[in-house]
Batch of 3 targets.
Target 1
Amino acid sequence: GALLVNERIDREELCGALSPCSLSFEIVVENPLELYSGTVEIQDINDNDPVFPSSQARLEISESVAAGARFPLESAQDPDVGINSLQTYQLSANPNFALDVQTRVDGSKYAELVLEKELDREEQRELNLVLTALDGGSPPRSAHVQIHIDVVDANDNAPVFNQSTYKASVRENTPSGTLVARISAYDLDDGPNGDIVYSFSSHTPAKVRELFALDSATGELRVKGQLDYEETKLYEIYLQAKDKGAVPGVAHCKVLVEVVDVNDNAPEVTVTSVYSPVPEDAAPGTVVALLSVTDLDSHDNGQHILVQVSDVNDNAPKASQDSYDVYVLENNTPGIPILNVSATDPDLGRNAHLSYTLLQGDSTFGHLFSINRENGTLYLLTSLDHEDQVEFSMVVQVQDGGIPPLATNVSVSVFVTDLNDNAPTVLYPHPNTTYADVVAPGTPAGHMVTKVVAVDADAGYNAWISYTLLQATDPSLFSVGLHNGDIFTARQLREDDAPQHTLVILLKDHGEPVLSTSATVSISVAETVKEVLTDLTDVAPANDPRRHVTFYLILAVILVSAAFFITMLSVGIFKCYKWRQSKELYNSSRSTTYRTPGPFHHIDAVRGGFTPPNFYHQVYLTTDSRQSDLLCKKPFTSSPLGSRQGTIRNGEPGLYHQIVGTASRLPTPAE
């Protein structure tokens, strides 16, 4: 007796919108035979979405529609019934429209758009809204439709000119059709409401309409008739712009046309009176006739006597500067312009045409610099080197084209500024030598051992060298001066210190970028040079062909030093011998030559420096002499006897002087 569902039941297919939806049936029962009737009610579920007739709706609404206007929208359909049917609508947020949902007699819902804020097509031409339909299911089902609203233009804007007054000038002999001015107006409306037609204002005189023509579409004002400055000098033309709306908007503007005079009138000469005949004895300045001359033209066109002054080349070119200082970085790119020499000439035509010439200082200038003859641009043809030459001086001649030509010279100095393109160069110790500086054992801290000598070919800050100890056999034993390269002992030498030390000194300049080099210094701890030589011989490579060269060089230095010492000793002995000879000479001649009592002081001075040793002065001073006598003698000879005889017997001019004076004062350098 169980009642079963035989196939899927669709309430909307069976009953549509009818509610409630029920199916009736009869059941026959046998033994005993009985007939029963029954009814099955089909209950609705929310299995259908609301549906709009189309996915997009389009409305056209005039911008002149007042607020409060209502616009019905197409309704959505939902085959479900009861609470599952369409219940409400929603509208996307916007500033102009609101949504009003209404209910029909049968209970169905429909929506209307309500205009809350008036539309302005010039502000927004179209709007896009979204309308949403919702049923009452849980969760609710929905449908969407796009509403596109076109704002229809209304003629609510009048044309506007971009300026209220236009000004133009035209010559009086201008041919017909010449453009005088172009007026322009715009209208924010659309379609015919925004189409503009230009025309003369109603109060424009007929004479103006005869002389000027206006294009109604483009707003071009052109000459139509013959203008005459002598008749009218200024025309004031009023124009208007209208749109093509049902009630057209109008705008007005004014065009001021100034007529420019041309020399189209000949002078008129009027003879007022003539005095004739003139007596032959009439004095100079006697009035013969009275004339009057008139010309209808204006300004210069009315002066009929015109004298033109021709130009003479009486002005030399004038440079904006008498001299130029140009600074160029070294290692520059060849062919770059470095200076523009500017000059002017107040003359006219050929007399004012200037040409620029580089007066070369020497033959190399032509390979380094060139100048554009027409505009005075100075070019650098090659790359300069600050270390090669720092400054170049030249003269630029500016000459006009007159006959004869006049010229002006301009001094140009080109300074080559330094770049840090040279690393420091070590002068001492030489990189290829194996000589070692010597320091004695037990030397205290602060003792200067040797010095690193270096130069930098750059200039200024780029040539400042700093010295840093980069590597050492014993870093605690030696230190180097940061700015002078002096190598000092950092502590006292101990017995357990190594006998040989190798220092690597890093030399850096202060340029940008920093360039550097290194120097290797060898220091031996030994009492004598002999020990150092022995050590150097021990450490020299067996196969080095130059291993004996260092020894011989040191030996040569020792021999030269010994020879110098012996020479100096000999000179001292010789000087003492000369002094004794001079004293004996004085004792033998004091009574006859000088007649002055008292002992002599004999001074024999030899100039230092590069003066030869045999050029010297002999000075003799007495204790109580009241005057000085200047005596001259011949140059000194190698024979002491010859020197003595030359001093006593000869007073000839020479390179040596004998001075006799008081002992109370010494002669001044002038004396």
Target 2
Amino acid sequence: IRCWSNIPFITVPLSRAHGKSFAHRSELKHAKRIVVKLGSAVVTRGDECGLALGRLASIVEQVSMLQNQGREMMIVTSGAVAFGKQRLRHEILLSQSVRQALHSGQSQLKDMAIPVLEARACAAAGQSGLMALYEAMFTQYSICAAQILVTNLDFHDEQKRRNLNGTLHELLRMNIVPIINTNDAVVPPPEPNSDLQGVNVISVKDNDSLAARLAVEMKTDLLIVLSDVEGLFDSPPGSDDAKLIDIFYPGDQQSVTFGTKSRVGMGGMEAKVKAALWALQGGTSVVIANGTHPKISGHVITDIVEGKKVGTFFSEVKPAGPTVEQQAEMARAGGRTLAALQPEQRAEIIYRLADLLTDQREEILLANKKDLEEAENKGRLALPLLKRLSLSTAKLNSLAIGLRQIAASSQDSVGRVIRRTRIAKDLDLEQVTVPIGVLLVIFESRPDCLPQVSALAIASGNGLLLKGGKEAAHSNQILHRLTQEALSIHGVRDAVQLVNTREEVEDLCRLDKLIDLIIPRGSSQLVRNIQKAAKGIPVMGHSEGICHVYVDTDASVEKVTRIIRDSKCEYPAACNALETLLIHRDLLRTPLFDQIIDMLRVEQVKIHAGPKFASYLTFSPSEVKSLRTEYGDLECCIEVVDSVQEAVEHIHKYGSSHTDVIITENEKTAEFFLQHVDSACVFWNASTRFSDGYRFGLGAEVGISTSRIHARGPVGIEGLLTTKWLLRGDNHVVSDFSEHGSMKYLHESLPLPQRNAN
């Protein structure tokens, strides 16, 4: 079961035949036997003397959690040398201070020099203390740990190898976590050029190679190597062009430049990669990740096991298409080319897409039929979602009309001058509209969303990443192919990308260096999840559509039932459907009120009574559990208010700032409602269902925003634009405008250029 929290609440089936590594990150949740290798930089403090106790405690907690899920966890740890170094330094300082105090007095204590400590002696002094620390930490989770010290010679002796293998299996069988380390107190120096001579030979010269050797020997499913860098980069971390490699494949070594090793420890990144590839060849999946970063170290291990995009994943299966990072870069490059086209050229692309939707309707509907059949056979989609998934000839015709509206209205959207100011003589400033950059639109069960959003992105010159739901895979594929066909007429095919890899939505939301704006289209739960997961990327959208209709005392009898029926029953699953009906108290027990109730019953709308409404009734409908509920079905809440002011207060308290309506013939009351309700859309004597980009004349919408940012309500082309400032001067410098300078600021507003009349 996929969870949005850092910790999965339900364990997953843990069984697979060993022999082949996992092909995708999403499969890591099935790992049964896991080795976690803790590098010296992870275990030790920054001063290399002593252990990072907080970090170590967090790692133990994560390992314990996975162990208690039924997995078999093993730890290969460094740290004995650092722990021993801390103890020996303390002992040396203590003994030196006593001797110097006896012979020289206190004045020379500050000049004491600490000798260089031999690593084997430090390891001997630190191993027992390190193990005692692990035991104390694991005891807090009712887990027993056992120490095993090994050397390279133990793997060359067949009997010792069998003994080690048997010991580890027995410990795992008894639910004990083995903690393995090289016996640095007696380990001989590594032989040169002796490692990685094939599948069966790897020299244990550091804990990276030890972890790889153990992982293969024990037929481990997953090896997690934690270090002090985020993973493997294509060039040394810290260099200007360094990019984190999400997935590393055998044979990619030539594309990577290795830097120096970490501040502590025996091996560097090159040693880790060699060990990882050796383990991968032996059938064990490998992830190299950062175990020291304070923001992620508390859940890095569990995140990896859940399949989240953390660190570098080593895989033998190379996907046929580009990675999502490459797609985002292609979308940005394509978007910039798109923005540089003439407005007429962008419009031509959209017109061509509109024609393709009608010309290729049979192929589109055939693909959509496959999606519908698969969804019905699996039985996973509720009826409202099935309706959203369905396409028809009428829907495609409507889409084409909307796209042509976008094309016609987008002629001067990009590069439009919205402000001109003369700063000084021959120094003119302009503010012009420009695309936002790369948009990520995540939608579910709505294939018609793809051409709508694509057209708006094309019109506004934005690059676009699309992530659709699996339930609409066939429909999305054909619609995206047609979109790229339309883009090809002006050579910008790559500007719109459809993400087909197994990327989790949460991982996409972390691409803050590649994506400029996220727009979710789907359920309120999807929107909330994305808002929670987005790190450093703004999210445009609404998490709920709790829309109100307030029936005033001066409401027209003819208008009330029509508007309420349309708002609730025309499409109850829509985010702009009526959810709460507010009735003025004076209308209770009147013929108008009876007509409203009768109409709702005829339409089979289930009524929930608000607390105030329930108090007026002897036998009331079921009382509402919450006045802040989006039903998304033929259900609604009815509540009573004493005035238009109370209606406004109710909407502000329980609404979602989406769309709210007043029905009244009193213009003064209507204007009060329109001016005081703080929602994205506020209507007078009109259905809530008008809150829609197509109905507003925007051609289409990327979504409805309830955020208090530049775009609010149905978001069309204008909401996908930002601005930049252009300053044209002639040898101007700020010092000329100082108190004794030769120039003065004018700050004169200049007329704007005429907009395209078409």
Target 3
Amino acid sequence: LSRMHLIQVDSVQRWMEDLKLMTDCECMCILQSKPISIEKDEQNELILSSQYSTCDNLQLLLKRAWIISTELTRIAQKLEKNRWQRVHSMTVRVNCHVRSMINEYNMFIRNSSEETHQFEKLLIEKCSEFTAFTERCIQTEDEDILKSMKSCINETLTTVAQYFGQLIELVLTHEAQNLLRQIELSDSMYITETAISSLFSLTQEGDHLCRIIAKEGGVVTLFKICRQDCFRCLYPQTLRTLASICCVEEGMHQLEKVDGILCLADILTDNSHSEATHAEAAAVIAQITSPHLTFTQHLSSFLENMEEIVTALVKLCQEASSGEVFLLASAALANITFFDTMACEILLQLNAIRILLAACSDKRVVDTPYSRDQVVTILANMSVLDQCASEIIQGNGVQLLIEMLFEKSSSGNSAEVAACERVQQKSAVTLARLSRDPEVADAAVKLSCIPRLIKLCRSPTERNNSDSVLVACLAALRRLAVMSPDGLEDSDFQQLVKPRLVDSFLLCTNMEESFV
């Protein structure tokens, strides 16, 4: 039976391969938009049903665009290898996808611009020309002819890709404009909510779409919503969309132009707003102050509102009803401590260390390595202040930092593993900085910090083979060894403390190998 099944599948696949070369593009276009099977298999990304609801139309367009883009890349690869039969069959397929895409989006996009129609026409003509070129190539075996044809095909492929990119850009810009127009002009709460939801879906498709939305005034439009009390119920969704758009430089510039920081500060300090609204406002703050972004230097208005914002975020951490709310508020605080050192002094005055340490003992609020990563980041950045040590000791923070040295992923998920490494590294960094205070160093030694640091240095699996964790642990160990030299055995001192840091590092990175 299994052999029979294989033969049947093989026959169908062979028939479909032949069909691509034997039928006209127009026929293929009609066939292609009809689903052959509802079952998923490895080839089904190339067979898309056009029977989609209105809300899925953009997703269908983007999926179709992704397929065409992938196919064009694959054609270039096959062309390089002179695999003419494959080049032609794939060119026919791209032709079909382009025609289907244009037919589909013309059904749901109204009032397309003249420019869009011109690009549609140019693209279809160039695709037909492309198919005709590749068809001639499979009908000859003359190497000289094929060689001369290859440069023509390459040039045509480049032009197809260029027209295709410009057409997609125009269509997506048109759709972004329509959604923003709906948000600005509609009196209906339902239409506004639906448009914001669609806009958010667009932002999830990558930075390029966020740039399009920002250039079309998306940040300005959304902040208008956040300044109208009648739309309060839409604030969380609107702020979430803003956070996504502000991952690109264009979004940040727009935010600065419309005094977005002041609006966020007003929302965060207004106690009449829901916790969900405060949490999403914190998410926008976390996004715009991210240390990974290279374009935060123009956020001059942030400094003017920083004390208000930091105070509100500490309050949100203290009153958070869930892990998600705490994560967003603490992530914003962690980023702000990188953004400006004055934030650490404000946090100290607000008793933030006590609040954060108390939250860490509540598993309902701090329930993941991601949350602990934010807390230990704040502690590490605050530990440069001399007054920080006494606050840490009073809040039983030394024990918490040592517990963080044991952070392990429960799921094995790569993002969670990376978060655990950051927790280990930053807790070691914080201990190293705080141990300049004899009282902290003494507390750490009494809580068996030294044996754990030695284990992390000597056992690569304990630190998940992380070099950054190793360097931080070596630094912490050396600081504690100065304060409490009796806590180390001679072999540990000779290998981990006495040599130059780089020599101890090299010894530990090769340790697993040498033990074997």
